[in-house]
Amino acid sequence: MTQKLCFSGKICIFLSLFYIGIFGQTQTTETKDFDEIRTNQKSIIGRPIQTFGVIELTDGYFAEFKKAQKTHYAFILRKYPNELNSFFVYMKRGGKGDELQAKLLSMEKYAKLDGAFTIFVEYATEYSGVNAELLDFTLGAKKPEPPKPTPKNPSGTVTVSYDKFKDKTTITGVAHLLDCQDRSDTALLHADFGAAISFTGKKPTTTPTVELKFRLFNNDLGANPEFVFFADDKRLALGKGNSDTKQYRVISQIISVSVTTISIPLDSFKLIANSKKVEAKVGERELAPPFIELDAIQKILPVFREMLRDLENQ
User: Fold this and answer.
1) What percent of the chain has pLDDT over 70?
2) In 75, 170, 184, 230, which residue has its Cα 20 to 30 A from 126's Cα atom?
3) Torsion (CA) 177, 178, 179, 184 in degrees, nearest 10
4) Quick one: pLDDT at residue 50?
5) pLDDT interval class at 187 (50, 70, 90)
6) pLDDT averaged over the chain?
7) 200 pLDDT more than 60
8) How open is the CA angle 35-36-42, to the nearest 5 degrees?
9) Is the Cα dihedral 82, 125, 100, 34 positive or negative?
10) In angstroms, how far is the first alpha carbon of the chain from the final one?
11) What's 146's DSSP letter?
12) What is the pLDDT of residue 182?
């Protein structure tokens, strides 16, 4: 069966009920946000689209539905209650159309119902608003929340790489100490703290080497600073590090980047990684306020633990 709607003498729309049935029963309806539908109507012409919002009564009939008062009920579909972003939708009288009309009429004036709504846009122009056939609805349905990405490690990043030319595997971990104080003379603009575990081949047949690395922007830890850590209550005097500072021009500013590294025993690295709390002093800088925010250095612990798990899995 085919229904024919002719408006303004020029626009004739043929809406096949068989066509609607095919989509509604055998094909998963695509879901789109209000803004996607409004800004790109032409991409959804000719197929049912589901969207979520609130619906209310109206007596306005527009565009191809201008003379459809006897065949369709008119509604306004909004993204949110009282939201200006809205569509005019029209549902065939009878069946679910009667159900929706009666439910809204039985409620107080300007009542709205939320849910999922399946619409069908047959005709659109670049400048017209959205006028759509309302095919189906599920009142009370809520838009599903998109799954939140769960990073492997929320504190930082860990990567494993193999250099076949050097026959060397490196496990690298870094935490971004972004919780820094404001731009005073002693505060950091940005800081990274990380480590690299390296060994020959694809599997560690000998004791790997471990290197800690601090990278500071517009600050430094001094030349060849002493590294002293506390892993819980255990003091670790790790020796002197090596520092290198370079300057880079970024647009009209000069940015200095200081990199300080130190090689440490694997056992010392394990003590730091498996501790509940770590404290550190590098040269004259204690990695605590006002140099960086309180407990910012604790971000490195889950990163170091993940590096050890990757080492065990090689």
Assistant:
1) 77
2) 75
3) 100
4) 92
5) very low
6) 80
7) yes
8) 125
9) negative
10) 66
11) P
12) 39
| pLDDT of 59 strictly over 80 | yes
State residue 10 phi and psi, 5-degree precision: -120, -30
pTM over cut 0.90:
no
Counting every residue written for the chain, the total comes to 314
As a whole number of angstroms, the distance between CA 307 and CA 150 comes to: 18
> 12-21 as b/e, with b when 16 or more CB fall inside 10 Å?
eeebeeeebe
- The stretch 245-268 carries a mean pLDDT of 82
Distance CA 50, CA 28 (A): 10
For 190, residues 6+ apart whose C-beta sits below 8 A from its C-beta are: 176, 177, 178, 180, 216, 217, 218
The alpha-helical segments, DSSP class H, found in 69-149 are 96-105
Q: CB of 98 within 8 A of CB of 38?
A: no
Q: Structural domain boundaries of the chain?
A: 2-139, 156-312
* More reliable by pLDDT, 153 or 210: 210
Residues 6+ apart with CB under 8 A from 19: none
Residue 98 has pLDDT above 90, yes or no: yes
| Residue of 141, 140, 90 whose CA lies nearest to 120 | 90
Topology of domain 2-139, CATH = OB fold (Dihydrolipoamide Acetyltransferase, E2P) (2.40.50)
What is the β-pairing status of strands 48-57 and 30-31?
parallel
